[in-house]
Design goal:
Helix content is about 40%, strand content about 25%. It has 4 helices and 5 strands; from the N terminus they run αβαβαβββα. It is globular, with a radius of gyration of 20 Å. The strands form 2 sheets. The protein has a 3-stranded parallel β-sheet with strand order 2-1-3, with helices on both faces. Strands 4-5 form a two-stranded antiparallel sheet. Strand 1, helix 2 and strand 2 form a beta-alpha-beta unit. It has a single domain, classed as 3-Layer(aba) Sandwich (Rossmann fold), CATH 3.40.50. It is an alpha/beta fold. The chain starts with a helix and ends with a helix.
């Protein structure tokens, strides 16, 4: 009986591992460190590089962007949206400036000019 239970556990473990490897995993990793209108951030670019490497080791197809202005961020996010079709697991990672205004969070592109809270709607990405 113990032998049968061990065999069943081994089969389940191997099946789960094979299933996980068969999943289509994709990730978008953005790291913004160098900003035109705000102080530079030291870590986001390095954090994004490390995260992308870790996700690749876990079997993710990784799309990356670094120091992206608003137009470039919108483009890579839109392209990532197209890649979502057929994905079993999707992950979005962002390292960089962010702001919260009126309960809404915004990612801050490298070219953003945030002189007032109202600018977040036009300069940031919700």
């Amino acid at each position: 009986m113990l032998r049968l239970l061990m065999l069943l556990c081994t089969f389940c473990a191997l099946s789960a591992s094979a299933f996980a490897q068969a999943e289509r995993r994709i990730a978008l990793v953005i790291g913004n460190s160098t900003y035109q209108n705000t102080p530079e951030l030291k870590n986001p670019k390095n954090d994004a590089i490390d995260m992308a490497a870790a996700l690749r080791r876990l079997g993710f197809e990784v799309f990356e962007g670094r120091d992206l202005d608003k137009r470039s961020m919108e483009r890579v996010i839109r392209q990532f949206g197209v890649k979502l079709a057929g994905a079993d697991v999707a992950l979005f990672f962002y390292a960089g400036h962010g702001v919260a205004v009126g309960g809404q969070n915004y990612l801050v592109p490298t070219d953003a000019r945030l002189a007032s809270e109202g600018d977040a709607d036009f300069e940031g990405l919700p």
